[in-house]
Amino acid sequence: MIWASTTQPDRISAGGMKTPPFSDISGKVALVTGAASGIGAGVARWLDGQGIGKLVLIDLDGEGLEALDLNCQTQHHIGSVAEEALWTKVEADLDDLDYCVVNAGISGSGEIADLSLEEWRRVTSVNLDGAFLTLGAGIRAMKKSGGGSAVVVASITGIKPVPGIGPYGVAKAGVAHMARIAAAENAAHGIRVNAVAPGGVDTAIWESGEQFREAVAAHGREAALKGMAATTPRGQFATPDELAGEIGFLLSDMAANITGTVLVTDGGFSF
To answer: Which of 265, 131, 259 is nearest to 194 (CA)?
Structure first.
């Protein structure tokens, strides 16, 4: 584990005056789930670049966590966010917490009438139950710290119905509303809770889809993503780093008056 410098250089404005960094998070502590890749890794890099003091990172992929090139102090927990025993261990190590990013999730597909209960529970156990366990642990730790900010990663499929992804869309609708309820419950404790609802994002979650793998085999990954993004006015999927910046804004004091909101970030897909 390595401590990073907590000093961030001032930026120079157009008028020649010094301006502070995006948000002063130096020396603070953040928890990020699903941090080994995709949006979670992007958030970890963003927070590290802003001078965070410590990152508590959680993922099933221990090698992916180790591969992150970060300067701040890190603490890794390997396991599924849907396992209550994992959170017992994590909370025991959380003395202070300022930020919580509820990001870990898995994909799932199939029409509701055709799904088995086993498949339904496989997807919702991580995407909904795991998010519940994460947010609960994060809020309890932030209460002990005297306040903080949390962001839950939902999905546009939790707002706009998309056929064939029933358990995923339902779980994401649930976590978005969970964030709003948590915001109402914890404003008096100085804790803000928001959610983001991304559309398509270029992450490894697509690799589990058979149609996507077939498209990649036939046309290459970039072309496959472009084809999927054709229904989006922007014409391309977001990058994990783009989502990380939006999540970082909601975490930061620049969003001090924002709580209980669900930020749609889908390139216009839901127009």
So the answer is: 259
- Write out pLDDT tens, residues 47-104: 999 999 999 999 999 999 999 999 999 999 999 999 999 999 999 999 899 999 999 9
Separation CA 171–CA 49 (nearest Å):
31
Q: How confident is the model at residue 237 (pLDDT cuts 50, 70, 90)?
A: confident
Q: Establish whether 99 is a catalytic residue.
A: no
The Cα 263–Cα 96 span in angstroms is 27
Catalytic residue among 22, 87, 99, 168: 168
Quick check: 215 and 177 in contact, CB under 8 A?
Answer: no
Return the exposure string of 130-156: e unless at least 16 CB atoms fall within 10 Å of the residue's CB, then b.
bbbbbbebbbebbeebeebbbbbbbbb
Which pTM does this prediction carry?
0.86
Q: Residue 212 has what pLDDT?
A: 63
Please state, in angstroms and rounded to a whole number, the distance separating the CA atoms of residues 165 and 153.
17
Give the mean pLDDT of 131-149: 98
Token pair, residue 52, equals 């965070």
Over range 183-187, report the average pLDDT.
98
